[in-house]
Every structure is written in structure tokens, then in C-alpha cells.
Amino acid sequence: MDPFEDTLRRLREAFSAGLTRPAEFRAEQLRGLGRFLQDNKQLLQDALAQDLHKSAFESELSEIAISQSEVTLALRNLRAWMKDQRAHKNLATQLDSAFIRKEPFGLVLIVAPWNYPLNLTLVPLVGALAAGNCVVLKPSEISTSVEKVLAEVLPRYLDQSSPNLGRIINQKQFQRLRALLGCGRVAIGGQSDESQRYIAPTVLVDVRETEPVMQEEIFGPILPIVNVRSLDEAIDFINRREKPLALYAFSNSSQVVKRVLARTSSGGFCGNDGFMHLTLASLPFGGVGASGMGRYHGKFSFDTFSHHRACLLRSPRMEKVNDLRYPPHSQRNLRVLLVAMEAHCCSCTLL
């Protein structure tokens, strides 16, 4: 049997058996993930330095600490997130029980990019585990050192019904990024070292909208600059393209920032910064349209990996009330039913 097919079969069987559904099991997986981060901080910092030349400061701030805080938040709120959520009712359903039940999807796949190889692997993993899923992890094939730690060390901390990791190794992304340096004109940087898979922070000017660097996600230390004549032209430029994962507006005028926010759409938005919104578990991180589906961080991760099942339980003793719905129909019965079903009645409560 194909090893991947066998792995998927075992994971599906584990989920079908109900292994991942109890809160205790989910909490134990999250605690294991937390121990992995605590026990292997230096190993992870070294791996991030090898892959991306990240300093210990940046690794702690943008990768390890954010992942650890997501674990802590999920453990603190797990049982509250798992509870059925009461739904508002109209007059016609006041004596019924209406609620939303958060059910795990089952088996989910998490594919991580290489620009934040730990953060963007573990933050979704926290939500998937908290929601009670079995998980297949696919770390980036470019950040090989981080991938090696995740593949060899992380499974020791988690139940083996839950994670499985795959490995693909190549230089495709480095070659793609180096090719983008030919767009426009290099104003700053431009140096590269293939043996280290390193590209210096680079600013490109005189870039045309039709060039490759403006047609695909960069995922690298390259900043292309396109000149425009006005704020309106900049907004039009953004709106002509697919909605971005994030949009950053920098200006000394708060009105300019607010105008960009009001007239554009993106997965996330940050005024006068390009990072700090990622540090808030209270804000969802995710795309819209072509920039992605789903939202991560805190409860948003839990909800992304949960099916919100609509539930309404009616008592058979109330069947007489349903006579209004059954033939023979009349205008009077219709008017009564329409009033009972109106949304503005949802706040009514019968004691």
C-alpha cells in the first residue's frame, strides 16, 4: 500500500473512532505543542537562522512567541470555544432549542509557506488541534532546517494519530526570486548567494505593472516601487488587481490612511506599520478572494477548522402549533406565520 494512503487511512480511522473529540485529548495535544516550543527554543532559533538568517530577536518575536501565545490562549479558552452557541429565535421557535454546534471537519491538511515557516505552520495547527481534527502538516520545502526540526522533533510531543509531515526539497523558490531581480532597476541591494539561498534586501524602481514582480506573490526580500500621481490613482491601482492578503498604508495624515481603508478590500489592513497586527490574537489573519480562505489566530483558528452545525430541536408536544402550516391554507394563517417568523421577534423570550 502507498505510505501516504496508509497514513490517511489511519488518521481517518482515528477520527472516526472519536479519539480527537474529547476536550482532554485536544488539551493534551496543545500542551505537547507548548512543551515543544519551550524545550526546543534554541534549536528553532538556530534553524530559522540557517534558513532565513533571522536573528534570535526576530525569531522570538515573529515566530516562537506568537506560536506560544496561541497555544496559551487556546488552552485557556478551549472548553468555552467548544460549547454550543445559542442562536437567537423568532416567535415561531421560542419554545424550541436553537444552537450552533462546533464540529471538527475530520482530517485537515496544513500547507505552510517559507517566509514564516514556524509561525504559519503552528498557528493553524493550534486551531486545527483545538477544533478536534487529525492533521497532516506539510512544512515548506525551502526552509529545510525548520522543516527538519518539525519532522523529527515535533512528533515526539504529539499523538501520532494527529500529525504527519511530508518533505520536498528543491531550489525553485530561490531561482524564482533571483529572476525577479531583473524587473525594473535595482536601487538598493540586489546581491545574492545561491549556496546560502540568500538574497539581500532589495528595492526595485521604475517597475512596470506588467512585469513578473507585479504579477505574483513575492515571498522574499524584494520591494518593487510603482510611481503614481495621486492617492486616487494608487487606490485604483489596488482595486484593479486581486484582493491582497494584507494592505499597509503609510502616511502622516490619518485621513489618508482612513481613505485607503474605506475604499479598498484586503485580508488584513495596517496603518503605518507592516507587522504588528499579526501579534494580536484578537484579530483574524487570513485572505479574501484570491488571497486565501479561512482565518487564523485565537478563536478564529478554532472556528476555521470547525464545522458550525445549525441545530434546532422541537418538542413533539408543540405539534398542535404547527397546524397553522398545514393545509387547508388561509391568508390569516399566512399572516400569523409571517409575523411569527419575522427577525425582529428574535429577542422575545417566553419564561
From TrEMBL:
Gene3D superfamilies named among the record's database cross-references: Aldehyde Dehydrogenase, Chain A, domain 1, Aldehyde Dehydrogenase, Chain A, domain 2
Domain Aldehyde dehydrogenase: 12-154, 163-307
GO CC terms, sorted: cytoplasm
Pfam short name (any one): Aldedh
Gene Ontology MF: a single term: aldehyde dehydrogenase (NAD+) activity
GO aspect biological process, one term: aldehyde metabolic process
UniProtKB keywords: NAD, Oxidoreductase
Domain of life of the native organism: Eukaryota
Matches recorded under InterPro entries: Ald_DH/histidinol_DH, Ald_DH_C, Ald_DH_N, Aldehyde_DH_dom, Aldehyde_DH_NAD(P)
Keyword NAD part of the UniProt annotation: yes
Similarity-based family: Belongs to the aldehyde dehydrogenase family.
Annotated protein name in UniProt: Aldehyde dehydrogenase 3 family member B1
Organism: Microcebus murinus (Gray mouse lemur)
